[in-house]
Amino acid sequence: MAHARATSADILLVNNAEEEIGPVVKLQTMFPEIRIFPAQPVTKTVFKTLDITAYPAAAFRAVNAGRDTTKPTLANQTVTCKFLDASWDIDVAAVKESEWGEDATKDIYKMAAWRGALTTLCSQTWYGTDNDANGFAGIASLYPNNDSTNVIDAGGSGSDLSSAYLLHLGTQAFCYAWGNDATLEVGELVKTLIPTSTDNTLWGWAQSIGAWCAICLTNNLAGVRICNLENASTKCLTDTLVAEALSKFHVGMKPDVLFCNRHQHHRLQSSRTATNPTGAPAPFPTESHGIPIEVTESLVQTEDALTAAAT
Description:
20% of the residues lie in helices and 26% in strands. It has 311 residues and is of the alpha+beta class.
């Protein structure tokens, strides 16, 4: 794949804009996953968890009567971090064309690269290899069918679909794993020779941005997916569906957060009946059955419908 660098046409767009206003970002700018998911640094980029899947059996016995002892059932699961690379570069000649000044132009590209990295990381968190085949597995892979364990089907169909997730967070549930004991690192901006697509070189500014990362998917019982949610007045996110999802959690494992997109957030609001004396509409919800709601752009409204697993 060829390198895509700033061209004179790109710099002309910068020059045509007012520097006093600054760059207007019309893309995703909020990343609640990064703020809410716990993060666990790990010394390796591939590691195993130790899972207890069954307790040893205990039994009552009479005095002087023995019993057969048993053992817990143990298993390993592998977590594989993948390298997320948001490094960028720009030709020194392009930077010198900017009427905003060299530093301001470099800051624009640095900001864009950083936000691009977070956008990719959040999308990968949910959709995994369906988002980027070279990345880590996502949460959706734990709940791939509408009859999978801890999946509730809202009944929608077609292409206008999304999912909502109730998650219990923590290092033994869902968390980010940052390999090599490092999070997303931003290197020094340096002036260096950079390659072109024709195997030549040119002088430019370059900066490395990257990290080894994954989302730990070691406990599918720590989450519930509500799938096949339409952006319509029926078959959308409701408090009734959230209550059904809560019933899937084992006692003592209460979810910490409910993630949904803004379309389903609106549908949840629309499904509620206002009870105030003024007759004003119900406010946009901040919780459902006591579970805080986080709205994310990373959960799209164009998911494929989940169907039953093939037999």
